[in-house]
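User: I'm putting together notes for a lab meeting next week and I want to include a structural view of one of the chains we've been expressing. I don't have a solved structure, so I'd like a prediction I can at least talk through. The sequence is below, exactly as it appears in our construct file.
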Amino acid sequence: MPFLLDSTVANLKKIALISTSVLLITSCINPVKQQQQEQQQQLAGVWRITSIDGVVIKQVGPAKMLFTAEGKVTGNNGCNKFIGSYQPVGDHLNLSSLGTTRMACGGNADSVERAFNQAVAKVEHFLVKGNELFLTNEQDIAVISLIAE
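Assistant: Thanks for the context. Below is the predicted structure for the 149-residue chain, given as structure tokens.
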């Protein structure tokens, strides 16, 4: 009988140790997921592009980015539509390569599109400040500035 009691106590200790380990691991993961969800909520919405590499975008047209709470990004680069995904990590913004349509554009729309495509490739970080969103490069210099719609 003492062997059975010792065995049961040993099993209870193992279960307690495993349960504690699971709780510790879960508590370490959940704050990170919660932080990412909060950051995605900060980014979620429609943002109108106001400047690219410091040059003010004067057209009122379609140059916009839409970040969904599910990690998708879509929009218009001034001429063509684009789609991709994103994941915020701290102030870092992981953007996938963006797929785009290939319509021919002229004039201002074409130059905005080219500037956007070059700038979005440099995006490393983001900052939401009030109703403004700044997508910044490695040196934290805004390459694309946007305003909430």
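A couple of points you could mention at the meeting. Helices lie at 2-43, 107-120. The radius of gyration is 24 Å.

User: Perfect, that's what I needed.
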